[in-house]
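Reposting from the mailing list since nobody answered there.

I have sequence plus structure tokens for a pair of proteins and want to know whether others read the tokens the same way I do. The first protein:
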Amino acid sequence: MKNILRVSPFFFVLAVVLFSCKKDEHQVIFQGGKNPVLTASSTADMVLNINNKDAVAEVFTWTNPDYKFNTGASSQDVTYTLQFDTAGKNFTSPGIQERSIGNDLGVTLTVKELNSFLSKMELTAGRPYNMEIRVKAALVGNTVPLYSNVIKIKITPYLDYAVEPPGTGPNYDNGNLWVTGDCFPSPDWSNPIPAPYDVSLKFTKIDKLHYELIADFDHTGGYKLIQIQGDWSTQYHAKVANTALSGDFEKKDADPQFASPGIGRYKIEVNFQTGKYKLTLQ
């Protein structure tokens, strides 16, 4: 009886090994799939127009990649992502735009939706760009990606923005921007801003969607942006409080204020195209 007990652990280990090997033989192994084939309703040059923003601009469709495993065709949901980038960037530029489609085999984009891809890439309105579009297929967890062919279209965007810029639309050529608040040496929360601060606290207009100002902050507190002297109703304020160095903003007579970064000289960059602001210590 003692001999039987002495050898039984060996047989136990052997049984586990044999069982493990049997399990390995039944692993689910990816055996391949087909790269989706992407087609567009048109590849002709496009000049987008805000007056047609709700019209259909493009219809993209693609084929099923037919993911297969050693157990047969995949039963997992396939998700698709439409990718936009400028030509020659190989879909690696920082500005690449993506749209998640779910598991549909196509998507219809309006003029505004298509224009928004280019606007978010901060491409200049009225200038044609060679764009490249492809679709990425993937399984759960963004695994086993397969990429389609690339479609090339020359697209000219119109002026668009995340936050309406200063001035009068649709061109906003007459826009101005000032900053006022209690984090500057003066003039506190004055609106209108008195001289000479109406000059020193006025932004430089880089273009109608981008403004910059280098300002001296002397203590904590906050500030807001105004586009019309003496008018709070068209001001810009931060969307989230206490985000001193960067964040999102909107056009609204409301709180919270932009938070002061503390004592120092900072460049304030306001980007109406993306709806974001950034402060950099000088």
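The second protein, same order (residues first, tokens after):
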Amino acid sequence: MFVLGIDPGLTRCGFGLIEGSLDGVESFRAHRAGVIETDPLVAVEKRLSQLLIELSSLLEDMTPDAVVVERVFYQRNAKTAIPVAQASGVAVALAGARDVPVRQFTAQQVKLAVTGYGAASKAQVQGMVTRICGLSQVPEPPDAADALALAITYFMIERTERRYPSVRVS
């Protein structure tokens, strides 16, 4: 099974494709990871259009069985949250238009699933993604590692939900 993780952002949108299994085998293989970058000096509609085109191309090329997008969690800065929410909406809509199941998890859920600690640092997440996927080096930039972590989280949470059907992580 292939799962595409998307760490949404308007300036930097991370993506990562993980191959894994839902049968309990703890084996993950990272196939591709990277970042889509848009120019902050360009109009928002052009940047969203670029993101739409590039994410659409990734979905076409990778044909994932599921897509995981980081859930936007508003903290303090609305200026940051709004463009992230716009990028997230593009990713969710594209997957939905292709009938690909979409899950969304918060950064805290991802950190907990990947490191065992919901307040883990970016470096800790990167380190665990490297270890879990058996990579020779830490995925860079951090947005790509975060996207891989999102895909890994999908497998971890799906397995738990299948094992315990009355439990559903929202």
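Reply #1 (J.P.):
I read it the same way you do. The first strand starts at residue 2 and ends at 7.
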